[in-house]
Each structure stands twice: as structure tokens, then as C-alpha cells.
Amino acid sequence: MQIIYLDSVDSTQKYLKELIREGKISLPCAVVADSQTDGIGSRGNSWNGVIGNLFLSFAIPLKELPKDLKLESASIYFSYILKETLSEFDSALWLKWPNDFYINDKKIGGMITNLVNNTLVCGVGLNIAEAPFGFGKLDVVVDRDELIERYFNNIKKMNLWKQVFSKYKIEFYKNQNFYTHNKNLIISLGDASLHSDGSIVINGERIYSLR
After folding, report:
1. What Rg value do the Cα atoms of the chain yield, rounded?
2. What is the torsion angle, in degrees rounded to the nearest 10, for the CA atoms of residue 88, residue 100, residue 11 and residue 133?
3. What pLDDT score was predicted for residue 124?
4. pLDDT at 24
5. Contacts of 82 (CB under 8 A, 6+ apart)
6. What are residue 186's phi and psi, to 5 degrees?
7. Could you say which DSSP state residue 25 is in?
8. Side-by-side strand order, sheet with 200-202
9. Which tens digits make up the pLDDT trace of 74-94?
10. Does the bond joining 132 to the residue before it have cis omega, within 30 degrees of 0?
11. Taking the model in full, what pTM does it have?
12. Beta-strand runs (E) in 89-148
């Protein structure tokens, strides 16, 4: 994995997507910034932060993804691998469906996935050093570059979706006191049932991750 390091950028995801569109990089590739000023969060929100937090985006050609991984499950897949990587540092971080990182009841980050020219682009923001008001930060001290190295080594193992999902579904109960958004509505995850493709069913409606 080629890694491009930047001091500051508006958004690692925007920067990487532009490089892909212009054909200026070989894949897979990642972009890491010390800080970002216009990061992309869920539902069009921004995700910015201070120096020391994790601002990372990476791109993997679709043909190099696990054979049983559907695009609608990609955010869960790569988010859970990061969750497992952090557990190697003894973090209690957990994954709220489908791609938000939590410590107890505080959000500390998230992941956004996009498709560009038959390439999956994943953007990650994680408060590993400091947290803005209303958010939490990681519960262990980690070196950013060591975390990234371990994460990409775990991705390289190319575990099948069914292997990752089998572990995620065991922890899905942690969502029961939380909410998700669907069609601009806030919906309780308390009665949600999780299906093998990563979708959930609430009140008879099947909902897929659109992030």
C-alpha cells in the first residue's frame, strides 16, 4: 500500500478521489494528513479535528476485494477490521451500525465509503488524541503510524466477509440503546434485526448502509 503523507489538507478523501480520477497514482493507495479542514462526515456533515487525530483515506480496486464482499457491506467490513486492529492495543472501541466508532456511549469517529472508477475509497476519521465538544476519544494511547501499519496488514489478510460478519453479529446487541438515520428520520436500533448481508430490518423495512 503506497501511503502519501500530508501536513494539512481540506479532506483526505477528496484529495485521494481527485488523484484517482486524474490517474496520478497506482493502487492500492492511502492518504494520511496531520490535520484536515473540511473532512467529510456522515449525512453531509463535516469531520475535522486537531493535530494528533487520525485522518486517513485509502483506495482499493474492486477486483482486489474479498470475493464475497458486497459494496453495501464494505463500510461494516473495513470498519470492523479497524475495530479489531484497535483491540490489539486493548481498546474497548465498538462499532455502531454501520460505521460509527464508539467508546461506551460517545462517538469517537467513523468511516465513509465511496466508489470512484471501479475503486472503493474509504475515509476514516478517529479521535485518537483529542475530542471536540460532545465527542469522545480513544481509550488507549496509540502511535498513529503504527496503527495504520497494523490496520493495512490486517486488511491484506483478505478475510472473507462471512468471517468478519460472524464476529460482528455477536456484538450487534451493543446497538440496542442507539439510533440510526433513514430517509431523514431518526430510528431506534433497539428492535433492529441484522441480516447476513449487513443490512438491518426495522418495522419490516430493510435498510442498507449508504455510507
Report:
1. 16
2. -100
3. 96
4. 86
5. 101, 111, 124, 126, 151
6. -95, 120
7. S
8. 193-194, 200-202, 205-207
9. 999 999 999 999 999 999 999
10. no
11. 0.92
12. 94-96, 100-103, 106-116, 119-126
**Residues, the chain:** 211
Which H helix or E strand runs over 31? strand 29-36
Are 185 and 207 in contact by the 8 Å Cβ rule? The answer is no
3: which 3 cell numbers?
501511503
Domains along the chain? 2-173 (3.30.930.10)
CA distances from 119 to 6, 32, 189 (A): 22, 18, 31
Residue corresponding to grid cell 439510533 = 179
In the structure grid, which three cell numbers stand for residue 162, read together?
A: 462471512
Q: Are 61 and 29 in contact (CB under 8 A)?
A: no
Please name the amino acid found at residue 190.
Answer: G
